[in-house]
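Regression test case RT-17, inverse folding.

Input:
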């Protein structure tokens, strides 16, 4: 088998119920991405009608918020819109997608494969019969981080909490507080990239005395987090805020929006990778089994891909 590349590269899987990708360097995941099918994507240009003030209904039926009401356009009039932010899941009610009026011709926005291909990093397509390079790089650990919010780093831990207003990071750990805060700043920056976190982000560092120490913590954010972003200074209570573009949901928001569906897709991935000579009987948690029963297309895809009908028990 050829040696695995040592430079940064994307691993991509066209999975059942989701596409998944990870940017990997030295067997560590720098960025993890999941895309669900049937969603309006950033860059989509579609026909719509103005149905309310700054609200348009796309021909497919989905409502999108407009960045501004087009002048001279009456309610019910036909318009063309371009999606600039996808729907963001939130507890209770999702945040509607955002769009702007355009004269461009209708087109589907780029999917996950197109977006990672445009980054310039090589893309390696993974097959179920091959070695599980995603798992070798820590795919399950990243999903656990996104679902639980618990992120370990050298000498400390982060607790990540997505909220409708912002994603919060709380820092805990041992040793001198200024050194802990600098290590935590680097860990937060890496987590932001890994989980595609955008919008407002708040970091609650330990209270640090001294302007020089607070400046060092802020500098650690600048050194490890790629632009574009804006940030505040670390205030006297140890709080720093970052604002980044938010074109789509973060990985934690996506997984926490429907954790049973996420667990079901993960189970399907494991079953699909079961060798043909292995037992064909699989026991699933009852919620996962129920969700799979409600998604017959997922089971049909599993049968088609594996060439046999797995026996699934709860």
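Golden output:
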């Amino acid at each position: 088998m050829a040696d695995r590349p040592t430079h940064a590269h994307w691993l991509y899987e066209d999975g059942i119920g989701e596409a998944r990708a990870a940017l990997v360097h030295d067997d560590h995941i720098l960025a993890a991405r999941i895309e669900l099918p049937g969603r309006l994507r950033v860059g989509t240009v579609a026909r719509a009608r103005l149905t309310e003030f700054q609200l348009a209904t796309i021909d497919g039926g989905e409502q999108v918020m407009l960045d501004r009401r087009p002048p001279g356009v009456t309610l019910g009039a036909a318009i063309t819109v371009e999606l600039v932010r996808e729907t963001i899941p939130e507890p209770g009610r999702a945040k509607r997608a955002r769009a702007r009026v355009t004269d461009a011709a209708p087109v589907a926005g780029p999917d996950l494969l197109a977006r990672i291909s445009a980054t310039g990093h090589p893309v390696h397509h993974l097959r179920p019969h091959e070695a599980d390079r995603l798992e070798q790089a820590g795919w399950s650990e990243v999903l656990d981080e996104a679902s639980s919010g618990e992120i370990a780093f050298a000498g400390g831990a982060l607790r990540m909490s997505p909220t409708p207003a912002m994603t919060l990071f709380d820092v805990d750990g041992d040793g001198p507080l200024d050194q802990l805060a600098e290590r935590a700043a680097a860990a937060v920056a890496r987590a932001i990239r890994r989980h595609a976190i955008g919008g407002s982000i708040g970091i609650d560092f330990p209270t640090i005395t001294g302007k020089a120490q607070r400046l060092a913590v802020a500098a650690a954010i600048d050194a490890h987090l790629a632009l574009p972003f804006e940030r505040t200074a670390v205030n006297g209570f140890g709080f720093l805020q970052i604002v980044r573009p938010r074109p789509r949901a973060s990985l934690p928001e996506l997984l926490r929006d429907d954790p049973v569906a996420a667990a079901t897709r993960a189970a399907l991935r494991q079953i699909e990778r079961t060798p043909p000579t292995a037992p064909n009987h699989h026991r699933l948690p009852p919620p996962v089994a129920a969700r799979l029963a409600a998604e017959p297309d997922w089971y049909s895809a599993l049968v088609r891909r594996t060439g046999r009908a797995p026996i699934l028990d709860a």
